[in-house]
Structures are given as C-alpha cells and as structure tokens.
C-alpha cells in the first residue's frame, strides 16, 4: 500500500502552484485548507492531487484542493464613485451641499485634490476598473456613441481584466452596485452575451442599472442579469394636473412613492455584506458602489428637497455661490491660497441679475433638487460605511470615495430642462414651459437637469464642465481615502497628480497581489496607471507625484499633462451644443493654451505665447501618447456618434416578426424607427366583450411611441419629448374576432445617411402617418417634425404590455396588458437611400464647412 505523508502533499502542492509569496493554512488536503496564489495566472492552475488512490476507498487517502484566499490581513475594499459631480459639489472641498459621509472618511483619512477623470462617465468608469486608459479599453466615448475603431468600440477586451476579476480569483467576494455604463448597447438585452456585464467581468453580484442614467423612481434595474421591478407595490399616488394648458404651474397632489433606488441600492448592498459576513466572516469583500447621483434625472425624495430648501443656499444666484465656494476652499486649504478665479462666461451664461423672476424661481428649484439628490446619496453611502463598522470590518477596510466621474454636467443647457432626453435631441424647452413642471421637479414626472450656471459654480475653482477634457472643470475631481489600520495621517491633504487609472495598481500593491500576466490563457496588457500607495504615509505627504504624464481626449477636445505642465486645446464647443458642425481636424485645427500648474493651479493663466517651444514639444508628446493608447482616429462629433450605426440584434434587418408578448428589449437592440419610413402590422384576435392594452411600444414618458387599443379603438401615438403628442385613433372600437391593424409612416427626410457628411440635413424631418383597420384607412395625419436622434434610453421595446413608464399618462398607466390575442406583429423598415446627387451636395457642404473653420 502506498502512503503519502503530509510533507509529501505539501511538496506536491508547491510543485503545482509556485511558492512566490504563498501562504497556506490548515492541514494540506483537508477540507479546511487554504492557500494564496502567485496571481500571475488567473485562474490559478489546479493543484495536483496529493492523496492516494488505490482500488478500494478504504485503502486510499482523500485530498482536497485548498481554497484560494487573499494574502493574510488583506483589507476589505469599498470603492465609491459618484456621478456628474464637480470639484465644488461636496462640503469636504468647500461646497455648500452637506456631505457628512464624505467628511467622515476625510476626517479619518486623506483628502486628494488632484485626482483626474476622463471628462465623461463610461470612459472614466472603464479606466477605474481596469487600471488602463479609456481608449486602451475601448471607451474613448460613452457606449451609446461607440464606433468601429478599437479605441471607441465600447468593448473592454479580454486582455484587460478588471479589478473585480483579479480580486475574485484571488479569493475576494466581489460586487457592483449602481451604474453600469460599460456594457455595449448591443449586448444589453436578455439575449446577452453577458461577458461584458459586471457578472462577466469578475463581479459575482450585480444590483443596478445598465446605461448612462436611470429614473430613480422606476429604473431599468437588474439583479445580476435578470430584470427586476421591486418598486411595484410601493407606488405612491402622485398626480400632476395638466388639465389647464394655460396654467403657469401644473399642481402636483398625492403621496410620494415609498421606493427610491438611492435607498434601495444601499439596502441591497448592506444585505449582501451581511450575507457574505455571516457565511464566512474571514472572507474579504470588494464592494464597488457607484450610485446614479448626481447624473440627471435628479430624483431625491421630498424629505431631502425640503431640508435643502430650508437652508436657502442658492437664493443669491450662481455667481455669488461660486464666489462663496471659492472663499470656502481657500479657508479649508484644499486649494492654494493665491489662486485667481477665472471670469464668469457672460457670453454663454447670462448673469443672475439679468434673469427674469420666473427664471430665478425655476433655477433655484432646479439646483435645490440637485443639491438634495447629492445630500441624499451621500447619506445612503454613509449607511453602507456604517455597516462595515457594525460588522467590525472598518478598521481594515480601504474606503475610496471619489467625487464624480467627471465635472458637473451642463447638459441641461443654460436654462436647464424638465426632460434631459430633449437635450439629446437638441430641444431646449423655454422657461415658460418648464415653469409648468416647477412643483413636479424631481418627481417621477420629470427627467430633470439644472441650469448650466449652477454647473459652472459647482466646478469651482475651475471652469467649464463635463465633456470638456481640456479644462480642469471637466477632469479634476477630488477624493477621500480612509484605512484606519494603515493610514494614520488623518485629515491631511495630498496634492500629488493622480488619475483614476492609478486606483487598480494602488489596490494591488497594498493587498500584495500582482497584476496577472495571463487570464483565461490570454496575455494581459500591462497596467497603465501608477500606484499612489506611497501617499498613504505621512513622510511622503509632499513627495513628488510618480504619475508624470497623462493625456486627455474627449470628442476632439484634448490636453496633455507632463510634470506640472498642462497643454490644452481651447474649448470650442459648449456641452449642450451637440448638433453644430464638428471640427473636421481636431488634432491640428485648435487654439493651444499652456499652463504651469505649479503656479496657475486652477488653469487661470495661459502662458502659451511665452513658451512656443514648450507648446510644440508637448503637442508632439500628445501625438505619441495618442498613438500608444488607441486615441486615433480622433473625431469631434457628438450627436452624430449617437446616431451612427453600430452592431445590434436588429442591424441590417428590414423586417422584424414577433408572435408572442415580450418585454425589456433595450433601445440598442430595439427596432429603430427614427428618420425612416416604416410599417407596423398587428394581427390580433379580439375576445367577446372587447379588448384594450398595449400592442407594442418603445420608449416611455419622456420620448417614445405606442401602438395600442384604448377603449377598444386602435391608437398609434408619438410622444415628442413630453412636449407634444401626435395621435392617430380609429373612430370605432374593434368588434370581437380577428383584425389586422396597420400603421404606415412615410418619412420626408434623407435620413441618417446625411450625418456621415457632417450634416443633420436629413434628420428630424416630418412625414405622414396612416392608420388602417382591416384594409380601411381610419386616420391620416401629418407630423411636421420627428425625434431626430434618440428615444428614452432607459426604457425598452415591449410587446403585449408596457414596462416602467407609459408614453401618454392621459391614456393609460403601465403595465396596460393587451387583452386581445396577439397572433403576429410585423415591423417593416424602409430607410431613405441617398442618391448620387444628394451625396455630391453633402460632400460639397462638408468641404465648405471645413474650409470655413480652418
């Protein structure tokens, strides 16, 4: 009989797994044995069997492979990042909005005033979780703007393993709560594949929404990869009286819903933490917590709005707010004391004193709701932090709380908007129209955003906004970090230049886990960030930054940081100007600015004229970095990229057939009926007693279309950005029996093909719709304009019922199930084709535009 000793088993294990930094516990081969892994290969190779196998079990020796665990005393990690929040949003860095949870971390740890983003959400998030530049991992822009180039395809390649995957394979419990804006739009449906979802990128548990933003009262919500609707049954009874179209303000009555994602997400995160702890108290956890706040729509509870309103923080207007914040920042020492505030941009943002009384009233309401949203979110983050303490884990937990994935958003434009979807379709509702929604601001009846004047103030001491990669207002965030077991220099400030790509290498260094060389047999790209773990020690408080060079590029605006200097392109487009003629040569057709950030910390003094050689040198450095990190080809287009063709389950298909109800198809895989002619044919059977309900719909309350039976009468209804509804309705209810209902729309424009030529000449045009019942025309109406670019992105294409919100509150409320039998639904699409003459004209126009801006 063979016998393998414990020592022999240990040798066998050592041969199977290299011994570098290996730590083992328990008796080798026993069920309780654990081991660390070298980490250079994920998953780690299976160890050789260390027991004995004879013909009979009684003569054999069992042996269990050890359970993989992180290095001894590996910390828990809570990685938080808020959304669309500039440097001055939080109270820690001089803002007026109370954020006590962030203050708690700052007081028990470190404050960082030079942590950089990419100027936009998806790109920053991809960089944060991979430790690589955003173009390197396919996120040069947001997923909804993806194009067919490696730096812009919205695919995090298999050679760029995330921090979730690395930590999971090294024994951590991993989770992701909140916003996931890193799944390609064409992989966001229930068809999958799910490899680019959080659960496919190393996060074992996901609770959140897929896309850029979400209605916090009723989001496009998932648990792992299953869509869920937990707010159903928690609805309030809010109603908005729109019966008087001449009313200055539409009153809101009733009780607010009792469910909001901001709280529900914290509840779920805490539940997950307790579940892991109670199952295995010793397993370290990695919790990635990324709430939707403060991205539009701003949806706090009324309780928080009332709290902020009572503080009267904004009554003096946005210019006074900016000045007050600037002085706060100097007093707190979070900015150098000798900085100058850049001028107020009167040419794009009207001074407060020039506004009408209605505008002031509206704008104050807008910003109070925004502030309430920020404060509410911070409060719920505090509950998650408190749960770590209650579980006895906080002392050995690294809490990284990053304020914003980019600067404050100005995508509401100078006047703000009650419907952000309107911005993405180049529609800016007037103050008079928005005043009607004053009392409803922040409720489920608005998809609201604030005036860009507040956004400029919330980026103090910098200027410009989200999207502006060449200005610090777009990229300079702030961050607080606590780790009581390691960081002892409590409350101190760190000013070293860092970037979100530095977070992954920092975490790996302090845990003692190497970046893997291979994952699933695939050679990994090297990390591109630089660890800032050295800043945790007080002796390095004033040490030079180890991150020496960093490029920035977003939609044709770009900059380069190198060793204290910043070369920038002058801003040539406000974020709300998405439909103008794009710069056709964004690399060269620029005005260059140069800043010595050691002297002009907030980018207030341009010294390009004094250092032409430096400008030339750094411009070449940018080109070198751009080549290295997949920045080329550069494009300055914005809306055109949203409308551009990309992979989809419906791409290239002109006929779509459905034979049974189906809900939840996201817009990226839904039939796209903008800027085209189309015919929708429904074959249904009406039961005795009649029928009603939704046949098919796409979008929701803030933009979309619906094809339904209302009181038995066929209806086709276009919701034009919650500003206008164009409706075709049959005069008679359908009798029992089988019927064919057809809606046919003939589009007037040239279609999306014009965008290829730097022109929007073919989009958003009108057309004529015809509704037929059993071959007979029952309604014909012309629609003078159509939605040009996008429907409501967090609402889906549904057949047989309507999920989340309906497209016309006056007609029905979801789910509005179809009580007739759907036999068949057919959608035929007839997209406009450009003639050679059309192409010649568009190309000539593009050449003329290019020559005009050179």
Provide an overview of this structure:
The protein is of the alpha+beta class and 854 residues long. The chain folds into four domains: 1-69, no CATH class; 76-547, Alkaline Phosphatase, subunit A; 553-642, Arylsulfatase, C-terminal domain (2-Layer Sandwich); 648-837, Jelly Rolls (Sandwich), CATH 2.60.120. It is 21% helix and 21% strand. The protein is built from 16 helices and 35 strands. Strands 5, 6, 7, 8, 9, 10, 13, 14, 15, 16 and 17 form an eleven-stranded mixed β-sheet that branches. Helix 6 crosses helix 8 (357-390). It starts with 5 loop residues before the first helix and ends with a helix. Mean pLDDT is 94; it is low at 1-20.
Map the helices and strands.
Elements: H1 6-16, E1 24-25, E2 34-35, E3 41-42, E4 67-68, E5 76-81, H2 100-107, E6 110-116, H3 121-130, H4 163-169, E7 173-180, E8 205-210, E9 221-223, E10 226-228, E11 239-240, E12 252-253, H5 261-279, E13 285-290, H6 302-311, H7 318-332, H8 357-390, E14 397-403, H9 420-423, H10 431-435, H11 452-457, H12 472-475, E15 476-482, E16 492-494, E17 498-499, H13 503-511, E18 518-519, E19 522-523, E20 549-554, E21 557-562, E22 565-569, E23 592-596, H14 612-628, H15 639-643, E24 655-658, E25 662-665, E26 677-686, E27 693-700, E28 703-710, E29 713-720, E30 724-729, E31 737-747, E32 767-773, E33 776-783, E34 797-799, E35 821-830, H16 836-853
Parallel strand pairs: 2-4, 3-18, 5-13, 5-14, 6-16, 6-17, 7-8, 7-13
Antiparallel strand pairs: 1-2, 6-15, 8-9, 9-10, 11-12, 14-15, 18-19, 20-21, 21-22, 22-23, 24-35, 25-34, 26-31, 26-35, 27-28, 27-34, 28-29, 29-30, 31-32, 32-33
